[in-house]
């Protein structure tokens, strides 16, 4: 057996051992009652799984082969990781024809990942590689299904300043003036925002700006409307989370959320 093969098997053993920790050494008996954040942390903490989850932050469903490429691992290893993520409730599969696609289970998972990215950035744990897409990613990107980055934070700030929403810490409520504004400018009505498991408004901590942007069904509806109006579109590069605004889209966005004037 070559040294490289031994190392690969040892790495797999380390990962399996980390996931097995809750079942050995009395770990499960020493934990206090309540949510087991250690188990979720162990799932997110593996570099390959972290890369796969980050790839799913663009809101698109991807196959195991596509996620393997994003993580830089073999398809067989990716399948093993996806089984663990599915069992842990972080991803869910969707079968279409002969293909099996994976997506994040909901925007709560995306919110946690965005928050962890912000914590990593704040504490100096940054990846060395940067490129021309980095400024674009910070300016405007997709976070699961809503707008994030500088423009996402700017949008929420303007909506709060103009009393289109009321925010107290992470709790956000759409006002009557906000409903009128959305109907008039974006043709979004309140009945379009109802969802059995998702709030209308939700604060999501932006990793690059380290302030909140708007999530929830409203954030998703607004991002969808920007795309329908051809103001903005997701970057066509596979795996990219960048959102590109057209020249017209930039002007329209600035008119609504740039200077605080109706």
Describe the protein.
The protein is built from 12 helices and 11 strands. The protein is α+β, with helices and mostly antiparallel strands and 262 residues long. The strands form 5 sheets. A 3-stranded antiparallel sheet has the order 1-3-2. Helix 4 packs across helix 5 (64-71) and helix 5 (64-71) packs across helix 6 (75-87). The longest helix is centred in the first third of the chain and has 18 residues, at 3-20. The protein is globular, with a radius of gyration of 20 Å. The protein starts with a helix and ends in a 5-residue tail after the last helix. Residues 29-124 form the HTH arsR-type domain.
Counted beta strands = 11
- The end-to-end span amounts to 70 Å
In terms of quaternary structure, what is this?
A: single chain
Unreliable segments (pLDDT under 50, ≥5 consecutive)? Answer: 1-10
Which structural class do you get from the secondary structure elements? alpha+beta
Categorize the overall geometry: globular
Summarize the helix and strand pattern as letters.
Answer: HHHHEHHEEHHEEHEEHEEHEEH
> What gyration radius follows from the Cα positions, in whole Å?
20 Å
Number of helices: 12
Q: Would you tell me the overall average pLDDT?
A: 85
Report the helical percentage: 40-55%
* Largest sheet strand order: 1-3-2
Largest sheet: 3 strands, antiparallel
Q: Give the DSSP E fraction (strand runs of 2 or more residues).
A: 15-25%
SSE blueprint and pairings:
Blueprint: H1 3-20, H2 27-30, H3 37-45, H4 47-55, E1 62-63, H5 64-71, H6 75-87, E2 91-96, E3 99-104, H7 107-122, H8 133-139, E4 141-143, E5 146-148, H9 150-161, E6 165-168, E7 171-174, H10 176-186, E8 202-205, E9 212-215, H11 216-228, E10 232-234, E11 243-245, H12 247-257
Antiparallel strand pairs: 1-3, 2-3, 4-5, 6-7, 8-9, 10-11
Helix pairs in contact: 4-5, 5-6
């Amino acid at each position: 057996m070559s040294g490289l093969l031994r190392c690969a098997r040892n790495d797999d053993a380390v990962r399996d051992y980390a996931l097995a920790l809750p079942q050995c050494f009395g770990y499960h008996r020493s934990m206090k009652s309540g949510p087991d954040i250690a188990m979720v942390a162990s799932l997110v903490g593996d570099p390959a799984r972290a890369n796969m989850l980050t790839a799913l932050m663009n809101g698109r469903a991807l196959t195991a082969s596509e996620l393997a490429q994003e993580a830089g691992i073999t398809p067989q290893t990716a399948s093993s990781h996806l089984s663990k993520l599915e069992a842990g409730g972080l991803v869910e599969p969707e079968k279409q024809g002969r293909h099996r696609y994976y997506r994040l289970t909901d925007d709560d998972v995306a919110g946690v990942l965005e928050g962890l990215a912000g914590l990593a950035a704040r504490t100096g744990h940054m990846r060395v590689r940067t490129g021309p897409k980095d400024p674009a990613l910070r300016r405007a990107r997709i976070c699961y299904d809503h707008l994030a980055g500088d423009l996402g934070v700017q949008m929420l700030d303007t909506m709060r300043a103009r009393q289109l929403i009321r925010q107290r810490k992470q709790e956000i409520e759409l006002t009557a003036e906000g409903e009128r504004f959305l109907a008039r400018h974006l043709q979004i009505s309140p009945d379009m925002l109802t969802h059995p498991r998702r709030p209308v408004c939700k604060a999501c901590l932006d990793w690059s700006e380290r302030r909140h942007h708007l999530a929830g069904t409203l954030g998703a509806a607004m991002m969808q409307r920007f795309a329908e109006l051809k103001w903005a579109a997701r970057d066509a590069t596979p795996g990219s989370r960048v959102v590109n605004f057209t020249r017209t889209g930039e002007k329209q966005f600035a008119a609504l959320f740039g200077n605080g004037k109706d």
